[in-house]
Specification:
The chain is of the alpha+beta class. It contains ten helices and 24 strands. A hairpin with a 4-residue loop joins strand 16 (about 270-275) and strand 17 (about 280-285). Helix 2 packs across helix 4. The protein starts with a strand and ends in a 20-residue tail after the last strand.
Length: about 425
Amino acid sequence: MGENYDAIIIGAGVIGACTALEMARSGMRTLSIDKSGAAGLGSTAGSCAIIRLYYSTVESCALAYENWFYWKDWEGHLGHKDPRGMIEYRDVGAMVTKCAANNYLDKAAEFMEAIGAPYEHWGPAEMKAKFPFLDLNLYSPPKRPEHDGFAEPTGGEVEGAIFFPASGYVSDPALSAQNAEHAAKQHGAEFLYNSEVVEILQADGRTAGVKLADGREFHAPVVVNIAGPHSRKINEMAGVLDDMAIKTNPLRHEVVHVPAPEGFDIENEGCVTSDSDIATYSRPERGGFVLAGSEDPECDPKEWVDDPDTWEHDLSEQGRIQAMRLAQRWSTLPVPNNPRGVVELYDVSDDWAPIYDKTSLPGFYVAIGTSGNQFKNAPVVGRMMAKLITECEAGRDHDADPVHYTLENVGMELSIGFFSRNRAINADSSFSVLG
């Protein structure tokens, strides 16, 4: 016989750790189980950890803005100081280029007005004042070096950008999960590492706990799948996959770190950027580097992974290509032949939006499809999941009568049903890491 808990959480990334914190705060005895050796060592560690507000729906913008308030006061939000150190959130802002590929951000200002978030329209002069080395020629559609016309302007110039002051990045994403883990433990949460779940136990038509690869069993009436790139495998174990209209799959993704342009203090003068004309985003990186990632244009092949335990971890030429595309805009950006970078798996849903929901198996819940664009939402997602689980376990039919969560700083009520496993595909999605 295994030990009994109120809830078992599979996954101790930043969202898993924040969910454990909020469930423990609500009085539940929780056990978090993770295959890795510590909190945040899976896809969270490979996250770009960008905090930004621009999404394709007002609901997603509102959720991101609410979380910004918690990252700004991370220690206050957690209520405890981790003796291992606390993350640093750098509130540097984000500059998003207006271009045809994002409809010149025609909805972005509307969404910011709706949620009360600050924003600024920048022209070319303001953009070059921030980044003096910018080449404002248009290069779309995005290309790879082997394609004809790569790095050749295609006519016209960038008209401007929107600057979002309430944006930035976390310098150490893994530590963010560890900070949340520490806070959760102060409320009685337990964590078990180097342990693999191989079976979702069931009894009397509902969840009953989990079985590990070493044969141990842990029992609980609630199990929460926050397993990142392993989420599909866990859903298969629970037998809920076929009952979900929106599915998730692991996608191999890489980002590259290259030196910032000479003479530019990237850490103190730079900001987050997103530029769909060249399909590249960036942020400052420690040590005078810039991180460059792909916005997943059609020219970049998507590397879907069949087995999240067997995949290529080494940086490929794709990372260097991302830096080369950024160099079209950043005219003095050096691009080494063998740059360093980070390769990780993203847990991607069919429309690149997350699923925060119950399932067809009573007691089995999911917070999945999050990799690539949901790091920023972890603090509030933890609270949303705790409320969803509490109300569903008390008898609420979330499918028929969705649970709502009040964004206290934004002053908006958000239906958690927006993130349903059975929603229609969001036609306004970028179908990329931008969400």
